[in-house]
Amino acid sequence: GMGMQQQQQQPPAAAAAGGSAAAAAAAGKPGGSKGQQPGGKKKVLLREAGGEKWVDPSLNEWPENDFRIFVGDLGNEVTDDLLAKSFSKYSSFAKAKIVRDSRTKKSKGYGFVSFLDGNDFAKALREMNGKYIGNRPCKLSKSSWEERTVRKVNMREPQAKKQKR
């Protein structure tokens, strides 16, 4: 199951970085507390690559516990705006972002779309896969960012079995 999904997401470096960021975000979340810490400071999310950690402010722009779709096969003409317009018909659509090269600002050909509601996420995943965004049909898959909710669900199952005794 999970191994195959990793292969679909073209750049292995990006997939690996996304995975570790998700794991780091999940690990640094004691008991699923909200983003506000006692001091009222904004939560700082660290990303790690090649042994170096840096603060990635863009991670704070995303809603907490959102449902995120990886959108691949995008042409260079697709902007955050166009991506957002393509998914804005879903009422809980929250954010769309094209991943760009930090130096050249050129699109890397993929992006992410975020929903606050799991039903919209599932509908968008079903309805928008293969639809044209810009000049070519997009490829959608569940973002690996979502691994944290998968982990939560797996932890709940054993307890449910115990109650049936």
UniProtKB/TrEMBL annotation:
The keyword Repressor does not apply. Coiled coil: none annotated. PROSITE patterns: RRM. Residues 67-145 form the RRM domain. It holds the Pfam family RRM_1. Keywords: RNA-binding. GO terms for molecular function: mRNA binding. Residues 1-28 have a biased composition (Low complexity). CDD domains: RRM_RBM42. Residues 29-38 have a biased composition (Gly residues). Residues 1-47 are annotated as: Disordered. InterPro entries: Nucleotide-bd_a/b_plait_sf (IPR012677), RBD_domain_sf (IPR035979), RBM42_RBP45_47-like (IPR050825), RBM42_RRM (IPR034215), RRM_dom (IPR000504). The keyword RNA-binding applies. This is RRM domain-containing protein. The lineage of its organism: Eukaryota, Viridiplantae, Chlorophyta, core chlorophytes, Chlorophyceae.
